[in-house]
Amino acid sequence: MPIAKKIENQLSQSSWIRKMFEEGGRLKALHGADKVYDFTLGNPTDEPPQAFHKTLKEIANAPVPGMHRYMSNAGYPETRAAIAKVLQEDSGEDLTAEHVIMTVGAGGGLNVIFKAILDQDDEVIISAPFFVEYKFYITNHGGLPVVVQSREDFQLDLEAIEKAITDKTKAIIINSPNNPTGVVYNSDSLDKLHELVERKGAQYGRTIYVISDEPYAKIVYDDVKVPPVLGHIRNSIVVTSHSKDLALPGERIGYIAVNPQIDQVALLVDGLVFCNRILGFVNAPALMQRLVAGLQRETVDVQAYQERRDMLYNHLTSIGFEMVKPDGAFYLFPKSPLEKDIDFVEAAQKHNILLVPGSGFGQPGYFRISYCVDKEMIERSLPAFTALAKELGL
Ligand code: PLP
């Protein structure tokens, strides 16, 4: 066998999103790109904000000697301080550069966290539906994913989480605004989660971390505010990136921020910085660190995403689809009108609409639409959705 059994096994369960992406390529070759409506990938078609291009030019025009060298494994102190300042303003917690570690995206950051905190067979609780990579990231580092179901409105089910906590639980992942549902968790559920991890941690005599994966935190609509997890949960570790809020997924720039009130926080940070090194990341990309330091209050055009959400939400609900209206991120997660979500996704393909089944997110019976796509493609797709709904008798 050329590859490990574990990887062979994971390959066979791996991404629906990729499968659909390949199907998209086939359909586009057959019918022409403008006749295929691809809603599968969370890869923004929008460009980064103007401020990004301006800063990029400034840096390129005035290169600083040494700017391409290795650095501290935690990243540049100036960038970490700029991020800490914004986090402090938003959460009220006393963060400094010491609490921030620059990472290779949120995906790299999550791997660093799990590497640093998990002993063999430690459990990590995930709420379904969830970002599919979580399971792989946890098992990469000897952990065991424990999946609990969210409530019907896709808010956290705190009772289910409590039942899932054991003496092996090391962390609970939350993701708000959520991929795939777009749901934002409110302050009240964060306060209750804080109370829960404190109580259960005391019962089992160990720290239970809440890992808040929040790459969509700045993509929210209708004046919804995402409550700062650092301000609500003492044992919180935030991990995020600029893949979505600055539309830079290919540049692989993100960070981890730890709550200064965590017990033995300096040791936790040492562990995280060491793991950034030994996972082979060494440090986050240098040029991007310089760039994002001054862009912490910048975002892509969120209003443009809101228009796309409204266009799809209004049309789909008017023709009979049911869904929770998302407050953030750039996904819709409607109920599948057919019992099997995979059958529904296949029916949609016949209308050249590419979607991802909820099964790909641990939530059969639903499907995901990613609307970080051109507005014109959404407009062109609406009659195809109407024809699909008619065919299914909605
Ligand atoms: N977490 C969630 C919920 C995501 O949706 C994604 C990417 O789609 C990531 C993490 C990984 O993002 P990054 O590009 O920063 O690694």
UniProtKB/TrEMBL annotation:
InterPro entries, per database record: Aminotransferase_I/II_large, PyrdxlP-dep_Trfase, PyrdxlP-dep_Trfase_major, PyrdxlP-dep_Trfase_small
Span of domain Aminotransferase class I/classII large: 35-381
Keywords: Aminotransferase, Transferase
Gene Ontology MF terms: pyridoxal phosphate binding; transaminase activity
Full protein name: Pyridoxal phosphate-dependent aminotransferase
Source organism: Heliorestis acidaminivorans
